Amino acid sequence: MTSQQILADMATALVSGKIEIVDLTAPLGPDTPILHLPPDFAKNTPKFKMHEISAYDQNGPWWAWGWMELGEHTGTHFDAPSHWISGKDVPENTTDTVPVKNFVAPCAVIDCAAEVAADPDFLLTKEHVQAWEAKHGDIQPGTWVLLRSDWYHRNTSTEAFLNADENGSHTPGPSVDCVQYLVEKNVMGFGSECVGTDAGNAAGFTPPFPAHSLLLGIGRYGLASLTNLDKLPPTGAMLVVAPLKIIGGTGSPVRALAIVPRD
Ligand code: MN
Question: Residue 253 C-alpha to ligand 1 middle, in angstroms?
């Protein structure tokens, strides 16, 4: 089959509904939950804010527009390698230099919704990933690995989303050996429905925040605050996620889309 035919067939399948586009993006607004850093790190990312320039009024009689106050790592967003100190010197490590071919890639969806419902501190281990592979096939290089936790249902409440108490945040994520395994597999990156890619208690891991430290350290990526992972098959879907081309950007909100076969 020629590549021209592949794209023509895809266009036909999109029109007929045999291929569906699923939105993996949370709404972006003033109530979008943002990460809360421990008090010893004084500076935090601000909440999203839209400032009005005009609204068909004396400031612009025929037009409406605004400007945004927005952290790079807000809402459904992409972590570029330069976000982490381990990735600060890897090539093509900022939002404007990441090769565009990496913005379209297959995904493996690992369903841990039941485990997370039973234990919000659930850690995805190497063994979990290998059990998934035994059922669905080996994860190929360049594949996004997405942790389905159904956590996105909490996304409307910062309190429920961060799920913090005096011991910190209780949210799921990958263990160190899991991330090491994903690094060996040379995956495209790791994606989570939580506020960040790492587990709520990952500051205490060795190394701390392994999804950031290890994956960004090899020039790979992260996706946080994804939604609707329960609407994806374990394999066979294609992700389209592109950060804004911010010069030197360490990350960016994205519109994350999945192209999903439905026959
Ligand atoms: Mn981030």
Answer: 9
Residue 126 predicted with pLDDT over 90? yes
DSSP string, 33-65: ------TTS---PPPPEEEEEEEEETTEEEEEE
- 26 touches 229 (CB < 8 A): no
Instruction: For residue 3, give the DSSP letter.
Output: H
Rounded to the nearest angstrom, the distance between the alpha carbon of 251 and the centre of ligand 1 is 6
* Cα 8 to middle of ligand 1, angstroms: 36
The residues assigned a catalytic role are 83
pTM over 0.85: yes
**Span 67-96, pLDDT tens digits:** 999 999 999 999 999 999 999 999 999 999
Tell how far the Cα of 236 is from the centroid of ligand 1, in angstroms. Answer: 26
Report every protein residue that has its C-beta within 5 angstroms of ion ligand 1. Answer: 73, 79, 251
Burial degree of 166 (CB within 10 A; 0-12, 13-18, 19+): exposed
Provide φ and ψ at 124, rounded to 5°.
-80, 125
Distance CA 212, CA 229 (A): 21
Judging by DSSP bridges, how do beta strands 60-69 and 77-79 pair with one another? unpaired
Two structure tokens written together for 102: 């990496």
Q: Mean pLDDT, to the nearest integer, of 5-34?
A: 96
Distance between CA atoms of residues 35 and 45, nearest Å? 7
